[in-house]
Amino acid sequence: MKSVILDVNDATYSLDVHPDEPLALALRNRLGLTGVRMGCSLEQCGACAVLVDGESTLACVRPAADFEGRRIETVEGLGTPESPGAVQQALLDAGAAQCGFCTSGLAVAITALLRGDPHPDEEVIRAALAPHLCRCGAHPRVLRAVRRLASEGVS
Ligand code: FES
Ligand code: FES
After folding, report:
1. pLDDT surpassing 70 at residue 110
2. Domain 2-76 classification at class level
3. Domain residue ranges of the chain, discontinuous segments joined by +
4. Which residues have C-beta atoms less than 6 Å from ligand 1?
5. What percentage of the chain has pLDDT greater than the value 90?
6. Are 73 and 135 in contact (CB under 8 A)?
7. Per-residue pLDDT at 32 exceeds 80
8. Which CATH class for the 86-152 domain?
9. What is the Å distance from ligand 1's center to 102 Cα?
10. 86-152: same fold as 2-76?
């Protein structure tokens, strides 16, 4: 085991992890942040995305130890069920989650996108969402949510 210190959702945690333990598993299993999804485990589906220093970052392969000294935000840091963040609320309003498995990663990607560019055009939106697979076919409703946020300049 290896001791790591992680900055997650504005709190600091000291964890004992396996040397090759992916960040997503450390967040889920050691911190209970199960909004972080573990899908393909191959950096191919986007489900595991978290914000690292503001960038949407896949967390299913790279070990947790790689992220010491970085600022990590998970979907839990973007709002709560009682008080959803703007991106979460827009996804809810658009009915953009069916099974919801992909939704955390999408919320993270949308947050990163809008923090960098509050008014992205369609091409930029689609490029940001492209790495995120949705087996339920919710993408049209996700796009509707992001277009609304982009038109309002909400991030
Ligand atoms: S679980 Fe990380 S990209 Fe699929
Ligand atoms: S809502 Fe089910 S995978 Fe996207």
Report:
1. yes
2. alpha beta
3. 2-76, 86-152
4. 38-41, 43-48, 58, 60
5. 98
6. no
7. yes
8. mainly alpha
9. 10
10. no
